[in-house]
Amino acid sequence: MSLFRSLQARLQSFLLSTQPKYATQGASHRRTEDAILQATKVLISQSGLTKISMIDISSASEVARATLYNHFRDKHSVVEALLSSEVARIIEESKRAGTPADALESLSISISSAGALAGLREHDPALIAQLLIHSEHPLYLELARTIYALTQSQSATGLAMRWLLGQAVQPLTPEQSREQAALLVENTLF
What we know:
Structural class: mainly alpha
């Protein structure tokens, strides 16, 4: 048995030595950024955005401040990365849904159940209002393109976007998400 483990260890060592050094560094970099973003999401859900600092993010993510600043220059860049990550995640979820109604339901549930948005609603309601008016922001446009791919209609896309953005302020239950997504698809030109 020890011979097997020895051979296994040698093979693993060999495989690691043949991989580029930067491949493992890239994986470590992604894990660190993921830890930072997840901690930021939790902090926002608990305290809102305006009350947290880079020190709080460093502490909650268990990442040294120097490491945090190597990844992000300030709290704004952490939040931008978090928004980008969350929009990409919900877009991927919606793409895996079967029908347009399923995709809209998935988007609705993700938005309505987001803990960070709940924290913003409770602690920073004015900030949510500011975020919702940036229709020229690349993330807004990316979400709109995804919905347009479902609807193939500018008017239906606009309606679906307003419906989804409204949930950032007034979330729906999963049942309401299902019912309203079905109604939206049924009553528009999907």
